[in-house]
Amino acid sequence: MSLKVLVGVKRVIDYAVKIRVRPDKLGVVTDGVKHSMNPFDEIAIEEAVRLKEKKIAKEVIAVSCGPAQAQETIRTALAMGADRGIHVEVPAKEMEKLEPLHVSKILAKLVEKEGGDLLIVGKQAIDDDTNATAQMTASLLNWPQATFASEIKKTDGELEVTREIDGGLESIKVKLPAVVSADLRLNEPRYATLPNIMKAKKKKIQKMKPGDLSVDVTPHLEVVEVLDPPVREAGIKVDDVEGLVTKLKEAGRI
Amino acid sequence: MVRGASSVLLKPKTTEEVSAILSYCNQHKLAVCPQGGNTGLVGGSVPVFDEVIISMALMNQVESVDSWSGVVVCQSGCVLEALDQHVAEHGLMVPLDLGAKGSCHIGGNVSTNAGGLRLLRYGSLHGSVLGVEAVLASGEVIDCLSTMKKDNTGYDLKHLFIGSEGTLGIVTKLAINCPPRPTAVNLAFLGLQSFDDVLQTFRDAKSKLGEILSSCEFIDRSSLECVEENLKLKSPIEPHPYYMLIETSGSNGDHDEEKLNTFLEYVMTSGQVTDGTVATEPSRIQHIWSLRERIAESLIADGYTYKYDISIPLPHFYKMVEDMREHLGSSIIRCCGYGHIGDGNLHLNITSKEYEKEILSRIEPTIFEWTARVKGSISAEHGLGFKKRNYIHFSKSDGAIGLMKQMKKIMDPNGILNPYKVLPDN
């Protein structure tokens, strides 16, 4: 049983870039700022490509919602080994207001359209940290979900997934088709090497709009304010334990 | 590595304080040892006996940044990375970058005429330093702190302080010409099969990427293995005998990417380069640079490192590594070569579990004789400091050394500034 795998990849601000709040305090500066693929999505693509190399998957399709530049993110996925891409065009202004529920609806429709057997996404995006897309997509599809995956094994018609949870690790079995979200320790993603980058240029990226999938991307949420975290204040030194206790009492902590 | 100790360490905050300290020390014939970020590799900032240590750490104020001319004026104790981040706010960059940027001082960089990763593009400090304020052994403050790009009025004294490792004066302030900060940076990491391919690729990089090329570094298999084993860093590509890092910096990302992609397609099709990866994202770029910048750190884990920093003509570049490797055989853990191939500067490092005099005697003076034979430099950028001062004659003529000693006598008659460094014993 060879699986058709879809992988959701999001274009986010590169994690090594210093984030600046916009003057209008409604978002962060994205113009001219370096973006890259969400690190957890890189792990998701890597896992899908490995499944293909093990002949468990027959096709890997990379999907991204976003403006024109989202194609660069899809190209990276193709250079890592995905077979083709789907770019759901969402203009930059609308992208700011795109919510996990919209993305989940889009992914669910695409999975149905493509006849996918497995959807892998990163557990969360490093810009909004909502950690909701995998879960909501599974619910819309009425598929089982295996989130925070740190290991995936295929057994007959099922997946045995090890999940990272607060207390340690949990092992569950999910029937296919299923939704999986990738956690940090699932794998170490490969670099796209030059021969593959060149091959990727010839791979197909299909373009469509949310409307083509009958998905309405009207926002339900409104961002009221975006602020910098408070500046960290300097600590104070105390001479001894008595001094520490006094200061804690003064601060109303004990 | 060298270790020293002293009983007094002073931390002046102003040029006047440095002047007062030196005036006193000169009167009482007390030797001093200036210290910056303590990242030097030849023991130039380590006291040999009981020299009074003068740390420049508190002289870390940036006085001005002129965004029209790009000139920054600052005290010599500014940490390189902090200074770079400061001028970044004005869209500028310090024209110097090296692995030790988080700790080294700009004053130390200037006093050692540090080269770094981007000399290929921005030139040496002799070009980018416009002005120097230094204090002489007598305590007299010499003000050559010009901020002009062109100033041909008399002998250009600032060059005396650039690279003299604190033996002719203590640098207190600097005026540096900062280029605009590039908005588009790309980094390619390439794998190659032979050293001839490395040289050919370097030449192609110069002709096809010339105006945007900002760094061209080289690593051999042994160096990368060390980083993989000791620091658990992962290589982006399969093992190759040689690797190169080629960086481009420019003002238009699309143009630069196109030039770079054309270059990469060319070198891949011709077979010079057999694998590689390219990155524009800061996170990826940082990771790839760490494979080169952290080699020195990774070697420490082997035990003891014998470090050499040689300038040699490119055709002989790797032969030195191969010859030394053969010469030392199994007595060592590894003999690796990496460095600024763009500048003809090889970093040759040999490691053993512990320091062994036997091993050192087999390396020196053989390595220096080898260098002298091809008319290279026994210290490309690290300087002479304490460790290499007695080998100066391998790269400088007797006449030149004689004149250096005369100048030292004039500028520091009591010999209090960083004694036992730079100039030889005899």
Automatic annotation (TrEMBL), chain A:
Keywords assigned: Electron transport, Mitochondrion, Transport
Pfam families reported for this sequence: ETF
Molecular function as annotated in GO: electron transfer activity
Keyword tRNA processing: no
Example of a GO biological process term: fatty acid beta-oxidation using acyl-CoA dehydrogenase
Subcellular location: Mitochondrion matrix
Subunit relationships: Heterodimer composed of ETFA and ETFB. Identified in a complex that contains ETFA, ETFB and ETFRF1. Interacts with ACADM.
Family assignment from sequence similarity: Belongs to the ETF beta-subunit/FixA family.
Protein name, UniProt field: Electron transfer flavoprotein subunit beta
TrEMBL record, chain B:
Enzyme class: oxidoreductase
E.C. no: 1.1.99.39
Gene Ontology CC terms, in alphabetical order: mitochondrion; peroxisome
Subcellular locations according to the entry: Peroxisome
UniProt key word Oxidoreductase: yes
Listed Gene3D superfamilies: 3.30.465.10, 3.30.70.2190, 3.30.70.2740, Uridine Diphospho-n-acetylenolpyruvylglucosamine Reductase, domain 2, Vanillyl-alcohol Oxidase, Chain A, domain 4
Domain FAD-binding PCMH-type intervals: 1-181
Cofactor dependence: FAD
InterPro entries, alphabetized: FAD-bd_oxidored_4_C, FAD-bd_PCMH, FAD-bd_PCMH-like_sf, FAD-bd_PCMH_sub1, FAD-bd_PCMH_sub2, FAD-linked_Oxase-like_C, FAD-oxidored/transferase_4, Oxid_FAD_bind_N
Main location (coarse class): other
Catalytic activity: (R)-malate + A = oxaloacetate + AH2
Keyword annotations: FAD, Flavoprotein, Oxidoreductase, Peroxisome
Transmembrane stretches, start-end: none
Keyword Magnesium: no
UniProt GO MF annotations: (R)-2-hydroxyglutarate dehydrogenase activity; FAD binding
Family the entry assigns: Belongs to the FAD-binding oxidoreductase/transferase type 4 family.
Function of the protein: Catalyzes the oxidation of D-2-hydroxyglutarate (D-2-HG) to alpha-ketoglutarate. Also catalyzes the oxidation of other D-2-hydroxyacids, such as D-malate (D-MAL) and D-lactate (D-LAC). Exhibits high activities towards D-2-HG and D-MAL but a very weak activity towards D-LAC.
Protein name (database record): D-2-hydroxyglutarate dehydrogenase, mitochondrial
Organism of derivation: Penaeus vannamei (Whiteleg shrimp)
